[in-house]
Amino acid sequence: MRNELEERILNVLDAHKIGVMASVKNKFPHARYMTFFHKGLTLYTATLDTLPKIDEIARNPHVCILIGYEGEQVKSAFIEFNGRVVIEENEAIIEEIWEKLDSEWLDKTQAGFKVLKIIPEEIRIFDLPAEEPDVLDLI
Q1: By the number of CB atoms within 10 A of the CB, which of 9, 39, 126, 129 ranks highest?
Q2: Domain Pyridoxamine 5'-phosphate oxidase N-terminal, which positions (predicted)?
Q3: CATH of the domain at 120
């Protein structure tokens, strides 16, 4: 069952790169669209260290990411990805993410370019017509 569930999750991650990441700002959720890449079930995204999300995750590294549903089909699968963020230090991974990134907003040569690594803790996949999501607990 777990392998089949992981495959369904990976299919969503393979098909969708844009998602919404929510962190906590002043005790309230703070959401923004971001581009995500993945290696297995681990997500990666790029940012600058001058942006508010860096301070937000320094205070509370737990985030929630919605990725998948794009409004085109009511029965589209999407995932709710709960995880913990760390700043990626591995230069090979940073370079790999940079190569995949096609962004008007970020440039790897900009001061403060960072790659965030989101380590999964729980992933829920919503796949209609099922009424309840299937849950992959990774803690």
Answers
A1: 9
A2: 5-124
A3: 2.30.110.10
